[in-house]
Amino acid sequence: MTASSRMTRTAAVLTGLTLATGALAGCGTDPSAGGEGGGDGDKPVIGVSVADQKSLFYVAEVAGIEDEAEAQGYEVRITSANNDSSAQVKQVNDLITQQVGALIFTSQDSTAAAAGTRAANQADIPVIAVDQRPESGEGELATYIATDSVKAAYDLCTWMFEQIGGEGQIAILRGVLGSTAELQRSEGCQNALDENPGIEVVAEDVANWDETEAFRATQNILTANPELDAVFGESDAMAMGAAKAARDADREIFSVGIDGFPTMFDAVESGLTQATMAQQPYMMGQLAVRNAIDLMNGEGEDIPAEQYQDTVLIHEENIGEHSVEDFYGPDARSLG
């Protein structure tokens, strides 16, 4: 698949429309084509619901889903909720009505996660959750594929504290409150803080994974805290926003994030930011498709209930040893 075709398909998803025709998979999904869910022959179609196609994590996840489905000879129907929980619940219900054989589900928040998972459960459609999950008791998952965000945040914050000498003032920029990643990354950094009494958290703000919100929040934090040493952004976008705010204010701070976006690789290399924990969304998308196929074929007994993926700490000293394509797929540089 070429970079140009990837960019064309990504642009189509950015409209947030429900792609029930299967155009992203490169083939039709007319229910009259035969097979459950309108798949090719007797093969059921894999339904996919993601929170958005603005976050590079989700774009790379979808790329992995598309490529693996194509390689395995399966069709996918992909919907993007454009960060609208209500819209996502409706999209999941639409996929269920279309009788997809399995649902790969990256929810916007816990509300969408619970409602969508329960609806799929009632229709006996297995749910493979990626990155986000419903709260306990809010629906049954076939498996949950995600970054070990607690460990990632703990390792990153511990490293950052070492770099600033084990003492100083930091700020924390949090993602969407109540989301799985926000809760786990907050927990991981707090664990590191508990082990480093010389580090003082002087400010916290919610920036919802967004660079612009993080930029504005950091402007206020810098004004109120002239001795600020570092910012932990719970995502790369927020770390980038913090670093740009500091640069514009002619302040030197340590700024780190979690994601491993191509733009963050560039920022670390240039010295704008200091580190990122690189996730593996492309591989997660591929794994989700393989799990979906096994489940649809009645061969999913050995799939673990939880499949946590490691991250890789990327910083100035080792960035030359890693490629962003290893984490975000072969077309990583054309995804954003």
UniProtKB/TrEMBL annotation:
Q: Which PROSITE patterns match?
A: PROKAR_LIPOPROTEIN
For this UniProt entry, the molecular function terms from Gene Ontology, in alphabetical order, are:
carbohydrate binding
According to its UniProt record, where is this protein located?
A: Cell envelope
Task: Kindly state one GO CC term assigned in the UniProt record.
Answer: cell envelope
Residues in domain Periplasmic binding protein? 46-299
Q: Kindly indicate where the leader peptide sits in this chain.
A: 1-25
For this UniProt record, give its keywords in alphabetical order, as a comma-separated list: Signal
Q: Does the keyword Transmembrane apply?
A: no
Keyword rRNA-binding set for record = no
Q: What is the name attached to this protein's record?
A: Sugar ABC transporter substrate-binding protein
Q: Which organism is it from?
A: Kocuria rosea
